[in-house]
Amino acid sequence: MANSRRRRRENSIGGGGGGGGDSISSLPDELLQQILCLMPTKFAVRTSLLSKRWRRICMIQDRYTAPKMMSLYLRTGMASTVKHINRWIELAKSRKVENMSLQLKFKTSKYTFPDSFYTDSFLKELKVSIFYTDMIPRGSVSWTSLKKFSLSYCRLSDESLATILSGCPVLQSLTLYFCNELRVLDLSNSSSLRTLRVDRNYSAPTPMQIVAPHIHCLKLMNSQLPCTLVDVSSLAEAKLDFWYGSLHGTEADSVRKMQELLEKLHNVEKLTLGENFLQILSLPKLRGLPFPVFNVQALKLETFLFEYVIPPGIERLLQNSHYLKRLTLHARTCKNEVGFRWSNSRRDAESKHVATFIELMFKSIKTLEKMVVRLKDCYLEARGFKEMVQTLPHNNNDNVSIVFSDTRYK
Questions:
Q1: Quick one: 230 and 244 in the same domain?
Q2: Could you tell me which residue ranges the F-box domain spans (predicted)?
Q3: In whole angstroms, what is the distance from residue 160 CA to residue 112 CA?
Q4: Are residues 254 and 188 in the same domain?
Q5: Quick one: which of 336, 323, 322, 270 has its CA closest to 301?
Q6: What is the CA radius of gyration of the chain?
């Protein structure tokens, strides 16, 4: 019985005529090629197990186009893979990849990009993280479609970066993360660049000068010393946060740089200041210095909520923001006037401190239309919090709206 079923199945595959050949092999090449064009690849491969001619047609089929390869994500730290990286990059280029992310974390082996890497007309987004290895293009660079470019941990000279950027005519976004060798970042020839983010390690040897007359958005993070903004004349949005020890070096020079930095930001419309930056603004050595008048309309402060006082830096910032319409507070754990954190068991009491702090903020702002307060869920769920919100003063302006949200969600 089993042998009979097997014979019937073989006859079905072979065309049922008992001629010994399969029905696929008897078809002309033109018809087989047309069938291949209409079949998913996995089905064609399965069928090739039944027909030797089918396998040959698969190999010579010139009308089949594989699905477009959009991205290459390569992350490796194994020395044995160094010799294969060029092949992977060339494969991605041959498939006209638009997004490429290369994270190369070699401790003992060094890798140098081939000259062909710097020529690609299809690449639109590139992320390169190559730990403390020199990135020096030996020839010209031509990334004519590149719009987003991110470099991390690269040992990169001013000249090398200038060479790279000269080959990126439509670049819109540039991120430099811990590229500490850079001293003068001249972006005056990058006319399409709109967003710049610079993260510098606190061990960077010198401050960086930034010449970026075309950018609209600037983010400076984790810098040992304030960057010198030579030209940011088109800037509309900025976000800053520095390491708290930023001013512990040559004090007078650092204070002067902080003052110059604030002057360069006075025309931005959207401003975000991190917790460390706000603490620096409140240092006694900065309190007596002239403070610029800001044109900011939307201000975001990442800060602690204090019980009875507004830190001097925040107070001066609010007083000098004459056109402020929207204020966002991304609140940390509450502190008292001395600066100690309150116990986790005192959430109900801390909710009252939130109300006190917001009331003080209202007294400092006359033009406010909306305040967004982002708190941990433990505050939002505290006993009596909703009732407390309804009693908040609006500085004699009933048009001011207050919105509370959870810090876990943007």
A1: no
A2: 21-57
A3: 14
A4: no
A5: 270
A6: 31
